[in-house]
Design brief:
The protein has 4 helices and no strands. The chain is mostly helical and 93 residues long. The protein has one domain.
């Protein structure tokens, strides 16, 4: 594995453990794809440090277990904002 990849893997690992970030959040911060983050954490990190890999795996599994809740909350906010906009338009008329 090339040195820059090893460095990226360890940096992303540290970020996820520090912030409990999701794969999407980590990908946005490090400007790589979700697939890259996922591959780094599930395939490359265990080759570098098994203990860190287990800790990251626990965070990712926790985030995966909560994703349906996050999606529902995002949908609720989206439609709440849409209804608010429509009421504002109706009130302006």
């Amino acid at each position: 594995m090339q040195e820059y990849i090893q460095r990226r893997v360890l940096e992303i690992c540290a970020y996820i453990l520090e912030t409990q970030a999701t794969v999407r959040q980590a990908a946005a911060v490090f400007q790589v794809s979700k697939s890259t983050v996922h591959k780094d954490m599930t395939e490359r990190l265990p080759c570098l440090n098994k203990q860190l890999a287990q800790q990251v795996k626990a965070v990712l599994e926790h985030n995966k277990a909560e994703r349906h809740l996050r999606g529902g909350e995002a949908t609720r906010r989206k439609y709440s904002a849409k209804v608010g906009e429509q009421k504002g338009i109706v009130a302006a008329r």
